[in-house]
Amino acid sequence: xxxxxxxxxxxxxxxxVDGSMTSTVTVELAAAEAARRAARxxxxxxxxxxxxxxxxxxxxxxxxxxxxxxxxxxARHAAAADPELIVETELRAGxxxxxxxxxxxxxxxxxxxxxxxxxxxxxxxxxxxxxxxTCHCPLLVHQGRCEPHGPVVTGVSGRPNEPALGHAFVxxxxxGADLVAAHAWRRPADQPDRHxxxxxxxxxxxxxxxxxxxxxxxxxxxxxxxxAVQPLVVPDLDVxxxxxxxxxxxxxxxxxxxxxxxxxxxxxxxxxxxxxxHGFCPVLLVPPxxxxxxxxxxxxxxxxxxx
Length: 307
Prior knowledge:
Layout: E1 12-16, H1 23-37, E2 40-47, H2 63-81, E3 87-93, H3 96-103, E4 109-113, H4 126-134, E5 139-142, E6 152-155, H5 165-175, E7 179-185, H6 204-223, E8 229-235, H7 239-249, E9 252-256, H8 262-268, E10 283-286
Helix pairs in contact: 1-2, 3-4
Pfam family, one: Usp
Domain UspA: 11-141, 161-287
Protein name: Nucleotide-binding universal stress UspA family protein
């Protein structure tokens, strides 16, 4: 079972800005998260960097002046979105990936855009890819779309103390959304080229996989019974297609880090967007053993009656 921390811990949401056209939307997403958590919002920028945004100064190179101007504009935007929000800024020298990883050590959440340049591309940039491996706190990656509808989707490995499952349940509970919990079914070793479908309802392999998924959901379903859960067993050959549908239709995709990295790799390299497509849903990457902050009124383990 995941650790649970009190509401007074990890009370900073950090958001990285870079001057790109999507920075303001990323700041809005971070401000909403900070308000929901009753946290302060720290807007950060790492210099040196190459600006593509409207705050670039055309005269002689003045990195600190440009960075300060960018941060001041982002802070005004966040304050306008929520006047009661505590907003602070910080400018730091260094490579963006390294600096953001350091900021994440003291944060409860780090929010970034999926890339700093060519934001119409669906694949993640080098900074987002690096932070998927090195971020010390949960990482929320904005990918161009934030919609207040659709389910929360998470992948379930079936391992003990599932790193992201509790966070997915909490996000669904706070949003009043359904939760889709997907578990990949790997093909038997003696059938490397054979698709496991079609299968019968009584297929023993499928039944065993479905039972493992149900067992993984039991504890959190009991603690947050208001969340309607849809378990989904996905053959491994169908994982890329299922993930693509989730990124297009969900309000949030939650995944754990620290394993083999297969799911994170698929998320960070999605297929090309079709014409007229306006981006994918945000992705929340949760480090192993990161504690879960429970909503008020959640059943505690001691309240459970067994036997």
